[in-house]
Task: structure prediction
Amino acid sequence: MTNKMRVYDKGKNGKHRKKSKKNIRPAKPKVKTKDKKEVGGGSQDDKTSNKNVKGGDKIPELKELERDVLKYIIGQDDQVRQIITSIYRTLVFPSIKSNILIIGNSGTGKTATIKQIAQMLGLPCTIEDATKYTQEGYYGADVTDMVFNLIENADNDIARAWNGIIVIDEIDKKANSGDQHDVAGVEVLKSLLKIIEGTTVMVPPPDYMGDLIPFDTHNLVIIFMGAFPGLERIRDLRLNKNSMGFARTEIKQGGSTKYIKQDLVKYGLPEEFVGRIDTIVEMNNLGYQELVQILKQSKLSIFRRYQVELKRLGLTLEYDDELFAEIAKASLVVDTGARELSNTVNHVFEKIIYEVLSNPEKYKKCRLLPGIVQDNSKFELT
Ligand SMILES: Nc1ncnc2c1ncn2[C@@H]1O[C@H](COP(=O)(O)OP(=O)(O)OP(=O)(O)O)[C@@H](O)[C@H]1O
Ligand SMILES: [Mg+2]
Result:
């Protein structure tokens, strides 16, 4: 599953359709004043520290940002630190280019983490699906479209877009590691090189009228994501482990247990592509404890969201703590990490919300009874 923060579509003739009437032509880069800089507010050549975000707000201190992100993202503390450090460096030193690869199974928080960080830093972000992209010159989306989407998500403020984040999801599907993969995938990865390296791409103005606009990608944060099924096996082979994870007799001493670039090349990513990745992040798989913690503590907890919703409708919610264990266990049956929590919790509240919304102001209290995870009619409204 991939998310796209904002989608723009193409018209029948392949031309891009205008989506909104507002300020179509991108704004001129904001002029920076002497003592107040904004991220993306200076010239693209500005190599100095640039510690403000959209609207002139100071960007939070690194530790403060980390603490805040961890209120949302559970079980990925090291990973969050790795990602924010990498992104933060590009804000402090705009000349540093940041290309990150996030490897992780479905529902481990890859997309959620980036969305959260982008939001907290006020950086525009676009999430692109690599499978939609084709080789340059072929019909289909290309690199220019990514930049275009980013500019659109920056409300057509090109200066803001300079410091934006482009996420390219499902990148593993473009690797050359078997028949099921896109045969031209490697060529697509190669055509992405220019944007990863940092270059000037000519993007059409958002209204597709008038001259192309040069857009410098040097300050962009590029984040690749994917589940990379089978990559673990490649690492295990390198470490001389058998498929159960046990080391064979001749253990290779000193081999990194983290993924290394060589593993990615073996997987089928072109060497020149892998060579340009500076940070490889491996997300943890989320287990029972983490799912319970997400439900109870995360600001992304869908359970908490229902609790707030019911409170707004004038109801208090009562339940035994055991409920979280039941929701987590039921969600773990499906192998999609925290993603499944929302299905389980939606099911729990489905009939309750229907009943409460059908009878406004009738109820003051909702009690969830044991067994509600299996049978969502097990509740009391009074
Ligand atoms: N580590 C986490 N902490 C808190 N919530 C999480 C975490 N991981 C996932 N979630 C919840 O699950 C939902 C789906 O997660 P997310 O979209 O980040 O998955 P993903 O890793 O990108 O997986 P996919 O490969 O399926 O896109 C999120 O919106 C969030 O509510
Ligand atoms: Mg995702």
DSSP finds 13 helices and ten strands in the chain. The pocket of adenosine-5'-triphosphate (ligand 1) is lined by residues 1-2, 73-76, 104, 106-112, 227, 286, 294, 298, 300, 337-339 (CB under 6 Å).
